[in-house]
Amino acid sequence: MLETQEQRREAIYLALAQVPKGKVITYGNLAKLAGMPNGARLAGRLMCGLPAGSRLPWHRVINSQGKLSLPENSDSYREQIRRLEKEGVVINNGKIKLSIYAY
DNA sequence: CGCGGGGCGAGCT
DNA sequence: TAGCTCGCCCCGC
């Protein structure tokens, strides 16, 4: 299980698809749920490689510091902020409250 | 095959 | 809180 990179990718996607709306999850935790204790960086890699039309909630994935791990000047960054706020996620000084972490 | 670099994380100063 | 180091895994050179 989880031998090919396609299987790992699917595992991450499945785990991501289970993150409820209005909540967020860290890269490390996401990878862990997918069965990869040390796959945080892989998770990050996959996020930036997601197809544009994907229905996956990639915007609910943040780093362990409770912040968005994207360049503040990028379009993706603003897009993520926009989507999160639209779901009711409160962000203080760029940080997200621990109370809305999933799992 | 070594080396540097990532949408990472944990631990120490 | 801010930096730095080190460990992890995957990629491109």
UniProtKB/TrEMBL annotation:
Domain of life the protein comes from: Bacteria
Domain Methylated-DNA-[protein]-cysteine S-methyltransferase DNA binding: 9-89
Record key words, sorted: DNA damage
Any Pfam family hit: DNA_binding_1
Protein name as catalogued: Methylated-DNA-[protein]-cysteine S-methyltransferase DNA binding domain-containing protein
